[in-house]
Design a protein that fits this description.
The protein is of the alpha/beta class. It contains 5 helices and 9 strands; from the N terminus they run αββββαβαβαβαββ.
């Protein structure tokens, strides 16, 4: 019987696994709606921010719950919220939180990956045949795949997507 050879392990492919850059810290979404005052207007509700109650609420906020967490601040209702309110909220929790952004959880995830990927040296992939791994246990924003591909393109010999045993070619440097 012929010996089975793992050709993938013998290949010169370099796997780039975005999951290696995943930040395991908990994500929290703060909805500014919870800090607004609801006012009935006809058959609907309008939301407004009143400075004094908002500041009082923030002064009593238990900031320990944000310790070492990645926090996104957004608003789920149509309301006019002054920029200073978002800034004040972020300053209130920033000393405890790992990271605070204005936006949704998707934006938060993209920023987390952007920060992590900005620390790699793309020159380490000079003339490499790179496979950007496609499957992962955690959510990886599509933007992160795009960022990696564009970061590596000037250096890599080729860029593929998927698994080393089954790749989709994306880029090959001209000879």
């Amino acid at each position: 019987m012929e010996e089975i050879v793992n050709k993938v392990s013998l290949s010169s492919l370099v796997e780039f696994n975005l999951e290696d850059f995943y930040d395991n810290a908990e994500r929290i979404l703060i909805d500014m709606k919870d800090y607004l005052i609801a006012i009935p207007v006809g058959d609907s509700i309008a939301y407004i921010l009143k400075e004094k109650p908002f500041r009082e609420t923030l002064s009593q906020l238990e900031t320990k719950i944000f310790e070492d967490k990645n926090v996104a601040i957004s608003c789920s209702v149509d309301a006019v919220i002054p920029n200073w309110a978002y800034i004040l909220f972020s300053l209130t929790i920033a000393s405890k939180a790992k990271r605070v952004i204005i936006g949704n959880l998707e934006t938060l995830e993209s920023i987390i990956f952007f920060e992590a990927l900005s620390k790699i040296n793309p020159k380490d992939y000079t003339d490499a045949k790179v496979v950007i791994k496609g499957c992962s246990k955690h959510y990886i924003p599509l933007n992160s795949y795009v960022q990696v591909a564009n970061m590596l393109k000037p250096f890599a010999k080729s860029i593929m997507y998927g698994e080393p045993c089954s790749t989709v070619p994306l880029y090959k440097r001209q000879k």
